[in-house]
Design goal:
The chain is an alpha+beta fold and 450 residues long. 43% of the residues lie in helices and 19% in strands. The protein contains 18 helices and 17 strands. The chain has a nine-stranded mixed β-sheet with strand order 1-5-6-12-11-10-7-9-8, sandwiched between helices. Strands 14-13-15-16-17 form a five-stranded mixed β-sheet, sandwiched between helices. The longest helix is centred in the first third of the chain and has 21 residues. The radius of gyration is 28 Å and the shape is elongated. The chain starts with a helix and ends in an 11-residue tail after the last helix. 38% of the residues are buried. Bound molecules: histidyl-adenosine monophosphate. Histidyl-adenosine monophosphate binds next to strand 6, strand 11, strand 12 and helix 14.
Length: 450
Amino acid sequence: MSGSARALQPPRGMKDYLPEELAKRRRIEETIRQLFRLYAYREVETPTVEHLELVAAKVGEETRRAMYAFKDLGGRDVALRPEGTAPIARLVASKLRTAPKPLRLGYVWDFYRYDEPQFGRFRRFYQGGFELFGVSGLEGDLETLIVALDLMTRLGFKTFNVKASNVVVLRSLLAKAGVSEDGQNAVLSYADKRRYVEALEHIRSLGVPNRTVEAVSKLFELRGPDYESILQEARGLCEGCPDAIAALELLQHLLDSAKVLFPSTQLIVDLGFARGLEYYTGVIFEVFVPPLEIALIGGGRYDRLVELFGGEPTAAVGCAPGIDRLLLAMEEKGLSTPAEAASLAYLIPLKGISEDEAARVAYSLRSLDLAVEADVSRRGLKRGLAYANQRHLPFAVILGKEEMARGHAVLRNMAEATQTEASLEDLAIKLKRSQEAKATGRLEPHGGSS
Ligand code: HAM
């Protein structure tokens, strides 16, 4: 590609959203915001650019390497945010330090990761976020999981899977064997990539007793939808490590509760599953729609992040739906509906109607909140109606010289191909009624336009 042709494309791994795709993305965003209202999350916004130090802490090796990091013109080390939990924890450690808890914060932002682009993996992508602070008990994990599954249901997915684990199981086994937090992070990072052989080699190299290496090795293999028996087996492997046993019990309790509300969701325990981000301190989970193998939503508990940023010790749990991936999954399942026609009516000024007369009528209709697209290129009647048809606009308002002299215009119902003359006031009332009927889902009475 020549230099100038390349400049016409967005940077690799980033997308332009044209109207139809953007409308679909907005539908997902609106559903996320509806859940903010229903679950009492309040929306916040932080800058796209953050101090490198903040976003690099605890994101894990892989994300750290994929950061759009640079020096600004003042020589400060900054980065485009790769995820939203750290910026939100920064708020809770600073401006929201004294905000009453529980505190629920939501966001819909774009994120940047210099990953190798592939199906469902972009360098710029959108996430929604639900972050809950000040709840250390199961209620917090449960509300977070429910909000994620509620979103899937509202978007129209009939079946989906949850994959869950609790990082305390592996961490406490390793800690008991004397492995430092850095050592644990390395093991979890291998596990995140399913590189279990290297994970076990690493554990051995740290001088961990054989018994623990074997237990970890067996835990790596424990996964499946029959979570009760899997957790039972895991409890056997974790004997003598009460923290790990408690973590397994919490996981069981969480899944039992989720099962009651979402009986058709497959709940898979996967004890070899670790998420790439290092800040997790408890239950972690991801949501999938088979046969797609990409995670659509990711989340978990991170009780130490606010403190790490200098705030009070604050329990925290949250999740982030990946909007671009949800969109891909909806397309795959035929759930992504085409965008609705934006306008209600097409305004066609005929010969003899001046620009300002046409603009005045359009303005008066819009001041009543009626969405009107005006013909501003003098297409004339025939081509104007053809255009309105092609755009699926429900009505045309035709401004003719004679009718306008009486303060009237012609209202045409495009689907029925019927038309009637009415005063501009009556015409506005009819359009308004039709718009309201559409918004409430009521059917227009026959001949509603006349
Ligand atoms: P994450 O798993 O890295 O978690 O990202 C959450 C979701 O964002 C993923 O499940 C996926 O749908 C989407 N996503 C991630 N990377 C990409 C990419 N390169 N292209 C397209 N979509 C992507 C987090 O970011 C955590 N902050 C989630 C969280 C919130 N944990 C606690 N609270």
